[in-house]
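Provenance

Sequences were taken from public entries as deposited. Structures were produced by running a predictor on each sequence independently, with no templates supplied. The record for Beta-adaptin appendage C-terminal subdomain domain-containing protein from Dicentrarchus labrax is shown for reference.
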Amino acid sequence: MPYLGGEDTVRELRRALSNPNVQSDQLRYRNTILKVIRAMSQGVDVSGLFSDMVKACATVDIVQKKLVYVFLCSYAALNPELSLLVINTLRKDCQDPNPMVRSLALRNMTNLRLPSLMEYVEQPLTAGLRDRAACVRRVAVLGWAKLHNLQPNSEIDAAVVNELYSLLRDPDPVVMVNCLRALEEILKEEGGIAINKPITHHLLNRLKESDVWGQCEVLRILQRYRPQSEDELFDILSLLDASLVSPHPQVMAATLSLFLSLCSGLPAVSLAALERVRGPLLAACGSVSRELRFTALCHIQLLLRSLPGLMGAHYKRFFCGYAEPAYIKQRKMQVLVELVNDDNVTMLLDELKGYCTDVNTDTAQAAISAIGRIGRSYSDRCLEILTGLLALKQEHITSAVVQTMRDLVWVCPQCSDTVCLALEGCEETLQDSQGRQALLWLLGVYGEQVSSAPYTLEVFIDGVRSEVSLGVKMELLTTTMRLFLCRPAETQDMLGRLLHYCIEEEPDMCVRDQALLYYRLLHCGIEETQKVLQGRRSDPSLGVLIGRPSEPISQWACSFNTLEPLRQGTVETDSTSRGSPEHVTFEPKPNTDLSDTLNCSQVEKVPSGSVSASRCTDASADVPASSIAAPLSLSLSPALSPEEFERLWLQRQVLHSEQGDEKMEEDYMCLEEQIQFPAIPHCSPQSLQAAMQLVNIQTLAFTPPHTLPWRVYLYTHTQHAGDSPHITLILGELLYTGEANQRAVLKKGVCDRELAVEGGEEEQVEEEEEATADGQRIRVSMRKEGEEEELKVTLKQQPRDDKALKGFLSILTTVLHTLSSERK
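Predicted structure for Beta-adaptin appendage C-terminal subdomain domain-containing protein:
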């Protein structure tokens, strides 16, 4: 907006610039020009003074020249014809003996940005490339890039390009870096500057001579070069080693990005490079600059995807400071969640508990959400903290806790009893729509376990006319219908009142249509209604913290040292922006879920040369190749209660003893696995449970660690993708007795009976497969030699499916191997 009184100001300034007395006094003349620049910065249109300012540039005062050139470059586009008047002065200054005047004239000659002046600029720029002063060469190199940007379709002068390539060996490092930038701009359509071996080694040898941003520019351009041999590769890495631990975070990040690009086929070298940058990254996290701290935290999260234990010993460095901004606190809490393990979980939870009462509500809710994510692996401790927070009776805390409990139950259904007990009375504190939606979902799914569920719903239904949230109304309808199916006597009257209001009085069509759907669904019968409304209660496959495999570095290497890590704000979907968990579609990341890498074909992946390899080859001879390659999917639906599991487990034993051996099927398939488990019986129940849930295997009962005999009971449902629906139920038991020198024996053939003879010094176990028309059992003993443990796995399947059972055994073995490697 023009400055008020601009015409009078311009008139006064023109009078002063034309006054001979002012022109003769150098100080007064400079102050007048300074007033012109000040008026221009305030929004006054001073373009009418262009001709007077052109006269003022003919001076020996460098300060006055700079002020005049600022004005001319700003208004040259509005006065292209008058701009020709200044060209002679600029060309004359390009021959001035003072290098500062020459560089200033070249810079402003290219800053005029007028295509009509290009023919006058090319000759001074060409002479500037050969100038004896480095500051002039710096400006001349960038001037050619400006000219090309002004007319990108013009023909590229090969002589200029060759001159710029020769200046890569200029003794001044700034000239060298400016040549790289200019060639990148001029040769953009050809892919940028051509990087070969001599140029690469020259740039690397002179890397330390450049400033911080010059080094970053060189390292960025060198990512296009590919060494011709392994020796050359390691020579380059040796030259980059010092920059990898540079005290400047920008140089360190650019060097690591180049390291990862060069070592894409050497994962061990890449991992070693990640270890090397741990110190500089931790130093950047303590920087005075908030922006630098935030950027370092984002890139640390990126590194933890491939090296989860990188910052494990330094988790205290990510504790939040009181004066830190909320966005840094929230990012630090995300990092802390990634660093949790059995050793530090107590201290981390205590620290996060303190953040839950932060004065910033966003920080407090982020801390509660972080505790909920840790609860996927350490549910008991986290639920104790969350339950204690409900006692504070603060609105934003209660809302976040209820939403976190909803998400935790969806992933860990074994927490439902504790959550249902904690829900009593919290509806009085909830005021926001997200918290009430979460509470209603919990009441609808686990209403039979909450004694006060009908009374809580009645409060919501009585106030439905004053409810303004559409999501709460729709969730209330679904919850009331679900509660009616399990507690009809207490809910029938309030369901009728709610349906009548939503159908007859509700103005919103979405709520009305949903009420009509439920009303017509009830007319179809209770069984049909149950099929629609009583779906799955949980989805443990969404992922856990413990047992999650690390990602290949190649998945994120291209986004390192870019803005991409800063845009990845949260690890999971924000719970405050969604409704019921079962209505959300989660898009899994490629190759980040352990279940994505497991299929039935892994049964055949046995090391050659082992005893089991030959037996597996014989055993699989009768199985078609297509059946081996078919992927196997595991599911937890329908869920089994502990009582139902015990009934089915004992029922299989009774059937086996009653039917006898004559009804057992012949020609069953057996596999022998020799797998080493160094620490499975010593891992925590939370770790084992989390790893199993990651691949849709539900654990029901545990024996405490270091207790003998050590047992775990589990179950899952199997189905082959692409086949006609054929679902089998598999029950399993993991048993570790602590006895040494046991052997795994699994035979293939016709078995008439199971015989076990135990002696004082000798033990013989003959494992048989027990199969009936609707059941099958395989027992596999897994041996560990020396310091290793022997784990016995008992599986019971109904109905029989050899292919599915072998696939499940392979998946289970891979999960146990993953846990073993995590404990090393």
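The chain has a mean pLDDT of 80.
The beta strands are 632-635, 698-702, 710-720, 728-736, 756-758, 763-765, 770-771, 776-782, 791-798.
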